[in-house]
Amino acid sequence: MFSVSAIALLAAGIVVVLLTPGPTNTLLASAGLRQGVQRSLPLVAAELAGYLVSISVWGRFLAQAAHALPWLPSLLRVAAGLYIAWLAVDMWRAAVALPDSTQRTSGMHTLFIATLLNPKALLFAGTIFPAAAFAHWPTYLLAMLTFACLLMPIALAWIAFGAALGSGKLKWLDPAKMQRGASIVLGVFSLSLAWSALH
After folding, report:
1. Going along the chain, which residue ranges are E strands?
2. Cβ contacts of 171 within 8 Å, gap of 6 or more
3. Any keyword Cell membrane (predicted)?
4. Which of 8, 16, 26 shows the shortest CA–CA distance to 185?
């Protein structure tokens, strides 16, 4: 089972990655913008289901592959660290793509598929979740329960963010500053992943 520090590390990784803008979060914000918080609530279940399936499949695959290729987990951590560092640099340089009211509202099926194919699932399975989560049921259940408990409020926050944009309450928002702050968080996280892979 997890130690308190391992749960804290898992939770921190989950929060950082789930907060990062991406296809699923953009769809959630767009739904909040177009149809409000209450009508968008079912999309949280679609996101959770998509991640549970995708993380579980990737986790089992990587656990089996690690037996034949023992260096694979370390390589994945380094690759994930480089990918997140690239995202951080790209996010710093590019403008934030905020949803607008002309985007079509996403249904549960669309959000489920977008989440199922989201590269973040591989990141969760290969670097953030402990390898033991895909070998022992109690550890798997605890990791997934932690993930679900963190995903729900973050998904709601993205929906509420979209709804606030639609209501005009965020006119003061500076997308460039928001993006640069997120890129710094990603950069720090990428360094911690690289450190854990090399030590």
Report:
1. none
2. none
3. yes
4. 16
- Which residue has tokens 């928001």? 178
Please tell me the number of Cα atoms within 13 Å of 72 on its side-chain side: 14
Q: How far apart are CA 147 and CA 106, in angstroms?
A: 23
Residue 197 belongs to what H/E stretch?
A: helix 175-198
Q: Distance (Å, rounded) from C-alpha 85 to C-alpha 78?
A: 10
3-class state of residue 119 by DSSP: coil
Rg (the chain; Cα; Å): 17
- The segment with the largest mean pLDDT, out of 59-63, 69-73, 148-152, is 148-152
Give the sign of the dihedral formed by CA 174, CA 193, CA 152, CA 104.
positive
- The CB density around residue 198, as the number of other CB atoms within 10 Å, is 10
**Mean confidence (pLDDT) of the chain:** 81
- Contacts (Cβ under 8 Å, ≥6 apart) of 192: none
Helices 108-116 & 42-68 angle (0-180, nearest 10): 20
Report the SS3 class of residue 77: helix
